[in-house]
């Protein structure tokens, strides 16, 4: 077979550049957001999708030319971004919630946008009514797609406009000042809140512009949002500087296309993430100021403290509560039918995984967005051990935990990365693991998945039905919960929390923060692996589809929804995130919309997560002052995020 | 309001998990429909559900003492959710028949469940292995990839005289099935594919693989499956200046949106399908009109196939006089040529494995419209 001719290479290069320019626009939004607000906006991909749909509607309903629609759709998306920030995110910010809560709120916003788009424009991909540059251009004797050239030109113009905005307008200079030093800027009269809103508007507008540019090439469909997380890699490549991002995006696009052409199209989507991880880990390790983005800014007040119980009484009552709860959990399935018990079993499995992630995020202070990879690794390890080696279930379960833990140890160094860099690197890690599941067909059977995974057998007990499985999962949950409960109260756990609260001080105390975190990562991964094993033998069928970015985001949501740094909270979070969509099945496609809205609402009204719910309710009943940090009383004016 | 709301939600959650009220009425056939209503493949699930609903409404309006109840479950384009939905329908809702899932991979994952629960399952999924699992309860109403590809490839090789054929498929169950059956059909014609490439679901850029296919000197390319992917591939084929006869695998499913989406890029494509919406056909015309009136869109093969599936089950109940899962399966199995169920798609009957015994239509896209070649 000959090498593809030069025309093909030229086509691939311009195609890669065009997509890369689109990445750059989206990535610029990420970069601006990170610099001004310390926030990763997980709805950035959805803003791109929304912009594409706005463009579609404008082109269909108005006689406006493509260029005018390009500008108008970008502006509309920008306005939407500002609106979303004011309505949904500002209240959360003013409550001084952890940054992660804001991130989760953006996840919720993304879900809502995706579902709204589907309800308004339908689920099928749509053809763009108009396109720029049909036909081929001859450049230096090579036929290039006019469409690609136009995308590059328009994206470059948008970036130039942004550059001029920063250099030549008062507002742009004010933004730079605020991003550089918010406190000083505030003194000089540049309101931080307004800067945040403006940042959101510009980021969304850039994403919207990207959407209008890419839609003619890729069609408009709800799945356009997936470009968002990948574009993040462009921002990371550019070291989160504005100029760097403008270069990082196109570089990413070209590398992806050439990689697919000359290395492997199967791992194309992993190329971006692999480069990002390598760049961050080896080439240019980012440093962040001491302290941590995750330090909990509120004090968790326990129920016992609320009620004013002395410690001894509280301990006794807690024991009573555990016994009652335990009995309840044992008796609950008797009253329920098979399907309800099935769902409860699934919830217990996700609880086990969420507990592990709570250790890493809530106690360890690392933002991890790739937890589903460990669940998947455990699921595959367990399934393969059972199917191909014939290992008994207990061995498969242990094997799953060990494989996942080893994977965690191997990638533990990622957790050296500060905050958001860690988030993107672990996200990339998760995507790469997923691609391995898809493409390593000899072992995983690829997208077809592994079926007929045997039901668990423990000695003489074959766990055949949902009720049996519930008790098995409950047992694993209790063991994991008890172990983690002891662990977080141990020397190890306290060192972990110390590192989360103040990395510098912890290091000064002789704690090796990276090692501490890597170990926490491995332990969390082991929990995920055990959960994955349960999942495999419970569903009896697994495929890469069950361990995607969406699932990783769901795990993250469980932990934050439940309440950072609370083990029962993680379990509660898993209950809500897994159980709610199942309970709302009657609502068909609207259920995911409701789920997204709830996510935002919870972040707005329950910043401490579900773990704070009961103490708050009791506090309200006793008419004692509500939350430890009420928004109005202790918020430091316009600088809540610093 | 927040804590109260949250408590209410948790309570609602727990209550919602309580035993569902089982209202078993004598003359109601409960049909569970599983498919993607959200996620990547939402369009597919929505079409097949719409077809099932239309037939149910028509039958219920007719009266006759047998009512059809459609219980729809969304699997969000994910197979573990298809499995969960199937478990729910089978154990809680006590459905009499199951229609679905849509993706071949997901259908394959459900087949053991319906076999165990002894509930007849009807599916539009086309991947080969679905009926090879030893279940007596699975009936495939869509023509499998082997049948579709044989028709398409034989036409290309024998009629059009094309010999250098490339195979380009998704790496999912249906894509792999298309690839495997294409290779087998080509082999039976004394040929081997000149190139064999795969893509991942959701890919948008195929120039890498197309570059290699072009270098192989292929005269024709059979490619499958995925709505948007195939449209983008067709466009990139044109942009790369490749002169090549496009052959469709499956899953275009005769969906009208495919024409709309792919536009001129797909002109000349030849493919095989079980059903195509043409107004002037005696058999399908009336169905196409009613479907368009009810759902404001043109039906595709998935809609037609589930429309027929609901009708078939209803006919089974009517013929056997009782709503009995076993009898419905036996009735379906007992259909024969000459004593088939007269659906809009075909006179439906099945072989021992549950595979359909009727021929696909060979269709070409000419002037942006379907044209039935044979």
Describe the secondary structure blueprint for this structure.
The complex is a heterodimer of chains A (642) and B (374).
Chain A: H1 6-37, H2 44-61, H3 66-94, H4 99-121, E1 136-139, E2 142-145, H5 146-168, H6 170-180, H7 182-187, H8 192-218, H9 227-237, H10 242-262, H11 268-283, H12 303-307, H13 311-331, H14 338-363, H15 371-389, H16 393-411, H17 419-439, H18 441-444, E3 450-451, E4 457-458, E5 461-462, H19 466-488, H20 491-501, H21 503-508, H22 513-539, E6 541-542, H23 549-562, H24 567-583, H25 590-605, H26 613-621, H27 631-634
Antiparallel strand pairs in A: 1-2, 3-6, 4-5
Chain B: H1 2-16, E1 28-35, H2 42-62, E2 67-74, H3 79-91, E3 97-99, H4 104-117, E4 121-123, E5 138-140, H5 145-159, E6 165-170, H6 173-188, E7 195-199, H7 207-215, E8 220-224, H8 227-239, E9 245-248, H9 256-262, E10 270-273, H10 282-295, H11 301-320, H12 325-334, E11 341-342, E12 347-348, E13 361-366, E14 369-372
Parallel strand pairs in B: 1-2, 1-3, 3-4, 4-5, 6-7, 6-8, 8-9
Antiparallel strand pairs in B: 10-13, 11-12, 13-14
Helix pairs in contact in B: 2-11, 3-4, 5-6, 11-12
Kindly provide the name of the CATH class of the largest domain in chain A. Answer: Mainly Alpha
Structural class of chain A comes to: mainly alpha
CATH architecture of the largest domain in chain A: Orthogonal Bundle
Uncertain parts of chain B:
14-25
Global shape of chain A: globular
- Overall mean pLDDT score of chain A? 85
Strands of the largest sheet of chain B, in order across it? 2-1-3-4-5
Instruction: Report the sheet with the most strands of chain B, covering strand number, pairing sense and barrel closure.
Output: 5 strands, parallel
Describe the largest sheet of chain A. Answer: 2 strands, antiparallel
How large is the count of helical segments of chain B? 12
CATH architectural group of the largest domain in chain B: 3-Layer(aba) Sandwich
Query: What's the level 1 CATH class of the largest domain in chain B?
Result: Alpha Beta
Number of strands of chain A: 6
What percent of residues of chain B are in strands?
A: 15-25%
Mean pLDDT of chain B: 86
């Amino acid at each position: 077979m000959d090498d593809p001719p030069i025309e093909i290479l030229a086509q691939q290069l311009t195609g890669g550049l065009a997509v890369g320019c689109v990445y750059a626009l989206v990535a610029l939004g990420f970069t601006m957001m990170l610099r001004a607000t310390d926030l990763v906006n997980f709805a950035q991909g959805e803003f791109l999708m929304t912009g594409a749909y706005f463009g579609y509607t404008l082109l269909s309903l108005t006689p406006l030319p493509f260029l005018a629609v390009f500008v108008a759709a970008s502006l509309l998306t920008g306005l939407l971004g500002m609106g979303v920030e004011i309505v949904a995110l500002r209240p959360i910010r003013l409550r001084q919630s952890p940054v992660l809560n804001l991130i989760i709120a953006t996840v919720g916003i993304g879900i809502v946008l995706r579902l709204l788009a589907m309800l308004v424009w339908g689920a099928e991909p749509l053809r763009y009514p108009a396109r720029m540059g049909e036909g081929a251009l001859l450049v230096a004797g090579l036929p290039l797609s006019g469409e690609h050239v136009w995308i590059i030109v328009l994206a470059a113009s948008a970036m130039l406009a942004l550059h001029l905005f920063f250099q030549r307008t008062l507002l742009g200079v004010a933004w730079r000042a605020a991003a550089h030093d918010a406190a000083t800027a505030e003194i000089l009269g540049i309101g931080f809140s307004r800067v945040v809103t403006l940042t959101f508007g510009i980021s969304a507008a850039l994403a919207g512009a990207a959407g209008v540019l890419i839609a003619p090439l890729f069609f408009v469909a709800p799945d356009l949002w997936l470009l968002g997380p990948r574009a993040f890699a462009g921002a990371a490549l550019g070291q989160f500087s504005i100029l760097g991002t403008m270069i990082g995006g196109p570089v990413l696009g070209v590398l992806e296309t050439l990689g697919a052409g000359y290395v492997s199209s199967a791992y194309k989507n992993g190329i971006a993430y692999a480069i990002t991880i390598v760049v961050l880990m080896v080439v240019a390790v980012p440093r962040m100021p001491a302290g941590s983005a995750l330090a909990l800014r509120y004090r968790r007040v326990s129920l016992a403290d609320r009620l004013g119980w002395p410690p001894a009484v509280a301990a006794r009552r807690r024991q009573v509560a555990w016994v009652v709860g335990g009995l309840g959990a044992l008796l609950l399935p008797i009253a329920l039918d098979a399907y309800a018990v099935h769902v409860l079993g699934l919830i217990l499995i996700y609880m086990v995984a969420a507990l592990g992630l709570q250790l890493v995020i809530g106690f360890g202070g690392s933002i991890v967005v790739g937890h589903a990879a460990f669940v998947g690794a455990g699921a595959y390890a367990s399934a393969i051990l059972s199917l191909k080696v014939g290992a008994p279930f207990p061995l498969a379960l242990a094997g799953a935990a060990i494989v996942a833990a080893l994977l965690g140890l191997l990638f533990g160094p990622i957790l050296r990365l500060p905050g958001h860099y860690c988030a993107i690197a672990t996200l990339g890690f998760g995507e790469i693991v997923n691609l391995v599941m898809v493409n390593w067909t000899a072992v995983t059977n690829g997208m077809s998945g592994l079926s007929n995974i045997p039901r668990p057998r423990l000695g003489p007990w074959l766990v055949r039905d949902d009720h049996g499985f519930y008790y098995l999962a409950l047992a694993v949950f209790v063991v994991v919960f008890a172990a983690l409960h002891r662990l977080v109260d141990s020397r190890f756990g306290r060192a972990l929390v110390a590192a989360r609260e103040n990395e510098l001080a912890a290091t000064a105390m002789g704690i090796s923060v990276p090692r501490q975190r890597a170990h926490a990562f491995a332990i969390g991964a082991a929990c995920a692996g055990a959960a994955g094993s349960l999942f495999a033998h419970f569903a009896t069928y697994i495929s890469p589809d069950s361990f995607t970015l969406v699932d990783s985001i769901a795990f993250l949501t469980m932990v934050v929804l439940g309440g950072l740094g609370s083990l029962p909270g993680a379990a509660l979070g898993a209950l809500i995130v897994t159980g709610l969509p199942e309970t709302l099945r009657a609502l068909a496609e609207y259920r995911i919309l409701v789920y997204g809205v709830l996510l935002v609402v919870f972040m707005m009204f329950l910043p401490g997560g579900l773990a704070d719910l009961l103490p708050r309710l009791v506090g309200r009943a006793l008419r004692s002052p509500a939350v430890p940090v009420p928004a109005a009383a202790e918020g430091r004016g316009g600088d809540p995020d610093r | 309001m927040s804590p109260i709301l949250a408590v209410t939600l948790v309570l609602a959650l727990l209550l919602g998990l309580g035993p569902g009220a089982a209202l078993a009425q004598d003359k109601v056939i409960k049909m569970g429909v599983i498919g993607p209503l959200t996620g990547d493949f939402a369009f597919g699930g929505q079409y097949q559900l719409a077809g099932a609903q239309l037939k149910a409404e028509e039958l219920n309006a007719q009266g006759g003492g047998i009512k059809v109840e459609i219980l729809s479950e969304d699997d969000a384009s994910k197979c573990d959710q298809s499995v969960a939905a199937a478990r729910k329908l089978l154990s809680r809702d006590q459905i009499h028949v199951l229609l679905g899932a849509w993706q071949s991979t997901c259908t394959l994952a459900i087949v053991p469940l319906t076999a165990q629960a002894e509930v007849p399952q009807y599916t539009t999924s086309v991947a080969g292995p679905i009926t090879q699992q030893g279940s007596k309860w699975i009936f495939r109403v869509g023509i499998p990839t082997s049948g579709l590809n044989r028709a398409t490839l034989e036409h290309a090789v024998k009629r059009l005289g094309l010999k250098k054929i490339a195979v380009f498929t998704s790496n999912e169950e249906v894509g792999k099935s298309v690839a495997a059956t294409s290779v087998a059909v080509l082999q039976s014609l004394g040929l081997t594919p000149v190139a064999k490439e795969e893509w991942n679901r959701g890919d948008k850029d195929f120039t890498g693989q197309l570059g290699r296919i072009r270098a192989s000197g292929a005269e024709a390319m059979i490619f499958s499956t995925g709505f948007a992917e195939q449209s983008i591939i067709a466009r990139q084929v044109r942009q790369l200046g490749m002169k090549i006869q496009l052959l469709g695998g499956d899953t275009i499913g005769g969906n009208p949106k495919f024409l709309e989406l792919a536009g001129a890029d797909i002109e000349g494509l030849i493919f095989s399908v079980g059903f195509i919406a043409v107004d002037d056909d005696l058999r399908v015309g009336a169905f196409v009109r009613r479907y368009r009136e009810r759902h404001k869109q043109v039906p595709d093969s998935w809609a037609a196939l589930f429309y027929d599936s609901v009708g078939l089950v209803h006919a089974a109940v009517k013929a056997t006089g009782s709503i009995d899962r076993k009898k419905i399966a036996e009735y379906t199995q007992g259909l024969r040529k000459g004593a088939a169920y007269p659906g809009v798609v075909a006179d439906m009957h099945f072989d021992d494995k549950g595979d359909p015994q009727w021929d696909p239509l060979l269709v070409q896209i000419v002037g942006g419209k379907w044209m039935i070649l044979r």
